[in-house]
Amino acid sequence: DAGVTQSPTHLIKTRGQQVTLRCSPKSGHDTVSWYQQALGQGPQFIFQYYEEEERQRGNFPDRFSGHQFPNYSSELNVNALLLGDSALYLCASSTPTGRGNTIYFGEGSWLTVV
Amino acid sequence: KQEVTQIPAALSVPEGENLVLNCSFTDSAIYNLQWFRQDPGKGLTSLLLIQSSQREQTSGRLNASLDKSSGRSTLYIAASQPGDSATYLCAVRRSRDDKIIFGKGTRLHILP
User: Fold this and answer.
1) Given a cut of 90, is residue B95 above it in pLDDT?
2) What angle do CA B44, A42, A55 make, to 5 degrees?
3) A35: which chain B residues are within 8 Å (Cβ-Cβ)?
4) Cβ within 8 Å, pair B46-A104
5) What is the mean pLDDT of chain B?
6) Which of B32, B44, B104 comes nearest A90 by C-beta?
């Protein structure tokens, strides 16, 4: 049973560019959440997708957008990249009706903006 | 606003010692609390999940407790090993909006 998978694992972008990160949830999970983790910090919630719609959003600007596909996989898009966007981006999957259930994380995508 | 604080920020102990990591949270209206391990450059691995109605959970050498009324959780690691070296994060799942709030973690180094 594959867990949460993310791609790419590492990437380098230039300021002003755009990036797309991808996530496939754990089998049986239909809810995907995205987190940003800066060095030395805990993960910060970006947004959550369920039934192909953004259900909740954290305190991130509109440059951060996402999408969920019918197979529950998800993308995170960041436009007009800033140096401060350099971080580990983590995807987590869960089930909305099982709020007591464990949340599973992928290995993350390391983004470096230069 | 839910805040999660982890103390200490870093900890170095000799191999074989028992140790306790602390997590406190300001809003007791939570579904559960989860402890994670993160190795350098890696994602998060779930260690233990404690439901809001539970007091503790155990897995091998790990034991996590939850005192919701006081907003505290502890992760107890028995007979520490060098392989336990990692960052340990706690996270609460907030009831009112189902958001998960993380602490900044405790960086643990076990000295061989």
Assistant:
1) no
2) 80
3) 102
4) yes
5) 93
6) B44
